[in-house]
């Protein structure tokens, strides 16, 4: 009998339904996502790209309540390594998402750093390594964001290491954590992205446990990942190739990750995010049902 993971709150996200953009003809309508995520047995969801789900709080509250769902977090994209010049435009975007997140009763804002190469065209936008000055902008900017979001909206920011961003590998993640204040900034550990970039999720949880504020659950297909790395394939095309796969077929093993998270002794969201853009509209639901069943077998 698997031990019950009573500190882990499992959910899913629009990402697991192939949703990457507020509006895209290749994505399922938001009503279908909400119907199917509830049908698959999840009770928690994320907002996904701002504007995909209704942004009117009263309407969204009604839509999620009638499906017995609750919101765990909103998501924002930031380029704070570019320095104070981007603060105002960043805050405009963040405050919009944070206001809706707060209105939904959620407590977390997932913050994704900007991509250094275009995830559709593969165009190199910036060098993959930051200068010392850019690291300082990034870390101080994230601390400021954490402070301002907490003051204005009562939310905790959790920064999401992500493939093809400046916070990706183990070295970059550890440097970021060592350079930021745990009172202001913690981590959304995405098990798939961290494995994609060569990191060990269990080791990170055991080493930096007090900084783990949120989890995204996904796996990578090792064979496809090896091909992606050998060819230098950007993240978008790698996803289209199927690099993020259905559990338990890939790495890392999720049971040890969840067990390590449970040992931290704090309540944590663990939101399933199987990147599948673009995907056939009938594909996500059966995968979501099987994934929920698999996570139950792990005790979650």
TrEMBL record:
One of its GO terms (molecular function) is isomerase activity. InterPro entries: IolE/XylAMocC-like (IPR050312), Xyl_isomerase-like_sf (IPR036237), Xyl_isomerase-like_TIM-brl (IPR013022). The keyword S-adenosyl-L-methionine does not apply. Residues 34-296 form the Xylose isomerase-like TIM barrel domain. It holds the Pfam family AP_endonuc_2. Keywords: Isomerase. Signal peptide: none annotated. SUPFAM superfamilies: Xylose isomerase-like. This is Sugar phosphate isomerase/epimerase. It comes from Streptomyces hyaluromycini. The lineage of its organism: Bacteria, Bacillati, Actinomycetota, Actinomycetes, Kitasatosporales.
């Amino acid at each position: 009998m698997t031990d019950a993971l009573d500190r882990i709150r499992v959910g899913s996200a629009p990402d697991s339904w192939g949703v990457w953009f507020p509006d895209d003809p290749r994505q399922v309508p938001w009503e279908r996502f909400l119907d199917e995520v509830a049908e698959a047995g999840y009770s928690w969801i994320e907002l996904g790209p701002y504007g995909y789900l209704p942004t009117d709080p009263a309407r969204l509250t009604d839509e999620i309540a009638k499906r017995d769902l609750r919101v765990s977090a909103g998501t924002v994209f930031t380029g704070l390594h570019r320095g104070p010049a981007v603060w105002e435009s960043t805050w405009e975007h963040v405050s919009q998402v944070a206001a809706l997140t707060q209105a939904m009763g959620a407590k977390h804002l997932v913050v994704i750093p900007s991509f250094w190469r275009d995830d559709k065209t593969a165009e190199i936008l910036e060098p993959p390594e930051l200068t010392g000055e850019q690291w300082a902008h990034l870390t101080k900017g994230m601390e400021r964001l954490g402070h301002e979001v907490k003051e204005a909206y009562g939310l905790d920011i959790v920064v999401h290491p992500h493939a093809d961003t400046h916070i990706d590998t183990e070295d970059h993640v550890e440097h970021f954590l060592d350079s930021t204040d745990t009172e202001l900034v913690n981590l959304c550990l995405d098990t798939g992205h961290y494995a994609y970039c060569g990191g060990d999720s269990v080791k990170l949880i055991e080493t930096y446990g007090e900084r783990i504020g949120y989890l995204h659950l996904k796996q990578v297909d090792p064979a496809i990942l090896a091909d992606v790395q050998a060819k230098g394939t950007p993240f978008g095309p790698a996803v289209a190739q199927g690099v993020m796969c259905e559990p338990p077929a890939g790495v890392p093993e999720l049971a040890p990750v969840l067990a390590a998270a449970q040992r931290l002794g704090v309540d944590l969201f663990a939101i399933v995010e199987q990147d599948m853009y673009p995907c056939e509209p009938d594909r996500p639901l059966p995968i979501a049902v099987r994934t929920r069943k698999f996570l139950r077998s792990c005790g979650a």
